[in-house]
Amino acid sequence: MSTRQSSAAADDDAGHPASRGTALGVKPLVGVGTSVVVSTEIDATLVRSATPRDVPALQAFVQGLSTLSRAARFFVPVAELPQMLVEAIESGDRRHHLLVALDGAGAQAQVVALAQYAILDADADTCDIAVVVTDARQRRGLGGRLMLRLIEDARRAGLLLAQGDVLRYNRAMLSLARRTGFEVRRHPDDATLVKIALPLKTNETMAASRTTTALLAA
Ligand SMILES: CC(C)(COP(=O)(O)OP(=O)(O)OC[C@H]1O[C@@H](n2cnc3c(N)ncnc32)[C@H](O)[C@@H]1OP(=O)(O)O)[C@@H](O)C(=O)NCCC(=O)NCCS
After folding, report:
1. Cα 27 to ligand 1 centroid, rounded to whole Å
2. Measured in angstroms, how far is the CA atom of residue 20 from the centroid of ligand 1?
3. What residues flank ligand 1, with Cβ below 6 Å?
């Protein structure tokens, strides 16, 4: 993997537009939405909301991914973080909940994973969920823990359904999705993809939520 030059912003979140009140140019969502700022640790890796100051480090993170990982996450051979996500971070768009996982501290911190959900334009109760872990850190549990964190955040934000599109051949993501409670279904429009879906408010998932909370606290 290529050496990354950029460092993530320092670990405070004061620079996040959403932490300063109404997101720029975005009507606040009532009842549903994203947690504004979270900060937690997963196996000594700091996980917190992405801020505009993280954008250069996020670009370096995406550039440092293998071609396979980039294609698995973005489906198309992107060279950098899609502009839509950059804009979502920079504007503090509350429909997007983006978590960065960081190794190291302060100016030396590097992004090792990006996990996110985005509330659908067509259905404000539903979010699209995605996660990507830097190649060197895959298969060590970080993706699974981040997915549990995202599910918990989505549930707390009042969302009713988490869903996502996954490449049919993506065994790692399908395994992770099943392990975290998602159902895997045929994709209605694209035979190269499958759809993953997890209701967030059934009795069963509320019980799963308690387990998740316990796991995250462990
Ligand atoms: C999918 C991804 C996020 C998983 O992250 P991770 O940190 O490796 O996840 P975990 O270690 O928590 O678990 C991954 C699971 O996949 C399995 N796995 C990992 N790589 C695998 C591979 N190449 N083939 C088959 N299974 C694999 C692991 O054994 C583990 O299985 P389990 O759930 O039965 O324990 C990571 O592989 C990744 O970033 N891939 C590229 C981007 C991507 O595909 N994103 C998903 C698009 S939404």
Report:
1. 36
2. 35
3. 69, 72-73, 130-133, 138-144, 164, 166, 170-173, 175-176, 179
Place of tokens 């996110």: 116
Query: Within a domain: residue 9?
Result: no
CA distance 178 to 30: 31
Q: Does 6 map to a domain?
A: no
- The model's pTM is 0.81
- pLDDT category at 207 given cuts 50, 70, 90 is low
In a domain, 110, yes or no: yes
What SS3 class is residue 190?
Answer: coil
The tens digit of pLDDT for each residue in 32-43 reads: 344 434 567 666
Provide the residue range defining the domain that includes 99.
17-217
CA of 17 to the centre of ligand 1 (A): 32
Domain CATH for 75: 3.40.630.30
Question: Hey, which residues does 168 pair with through a beta bridge?
Answer: none
pLDDT of residue 18: 37
Indicate whether 5 belongs to any domain: no
User: Into how many domains does the chain fold?
Assistant: 1
Nearest atom (ligand 1) to Cα of 174? 16
**Hey, is 186 helix, strand or coil?**
strand
